[in-house]
Amino acid sequence: MAKCDICDKGAHFGIKVSHSHRRSNKMWKANIRTVKAIVNGTPKTLHVCADCLKSNKVVRA
What is the DSSP letter of 29? Predict the structure, then answer.
């Protein structure tokens, strides 16, 4: 399952409720991107969420 390498954000589970109040399971996935980033001076491929990309927690290569 996709998970952010920086903040460990992943999928969330819950219950979807329709207008007639029928309930079924639902999964919300994090917005994960595959990014080439600089880690300890070398480029490396990471799985990073969009929030970490926007907040500049990752230095892109």
Answer: P
Residue 36's closest CA among 49, 51, 46, 48? Answer: 46
The CA-based dihedral angle spanning residues 24, 5, 46, 55, taken in that order and rounded to the nearest 10 degrees: 90
**For the segment 4-56, what is each residue's pLDDT rounded down to a tens digit?**
999 999 999 999 999 999 999 999 999 999 999 999 999 999 999 999 999 99
Angle at the Cα of 17 from the Cα atoms of 11 and 19, rounded to 5 degrees: 145
Neighbouring-strand partners of residue 23: 17
Domain residue ranges of the chain, discontinuous segments joined by +: 12-54
Distance, CA of 42 to CA of 6 (rounded, Å): 17
Q: What is the DSSP letter of 60?
A: B
Give residue 40's identity as a one-letter amino acid code. N
